[in-house]
Amino acid sequence: MPIVVKIDEETRIISDPLNWIVQSFMGGRWRSKTYHPNYRAALLHLGETLVRESNAEDLAEALDRVEEVIDKLVEAHKDVITPVVDDEGFLVDAS
Fold first, then answer.
1. Which of the 8 DSSP states describes residue 50?
2. Single pTM value for the model
């Protein structure tokens, strides 16, 4: 049985016996876009793609997009992980 992680209404990451697959919902069905050996690689690729395909016109705007993408990916995983942040909002190593 595959594992399905919904990122948003148009994007998800799904598993098969050999891969983690980034999929997009297009034309009324889910279409596989990229294949990765592990979940971390799929998530990193998706994050980089979302920033690269944004409408950022310079480095400052790209960095703003990075922040937005991180927020989006954390939100998609909120039921699985609880990030630990300090008083300034920075992630803290909880280990």
1. H
2. 0.74
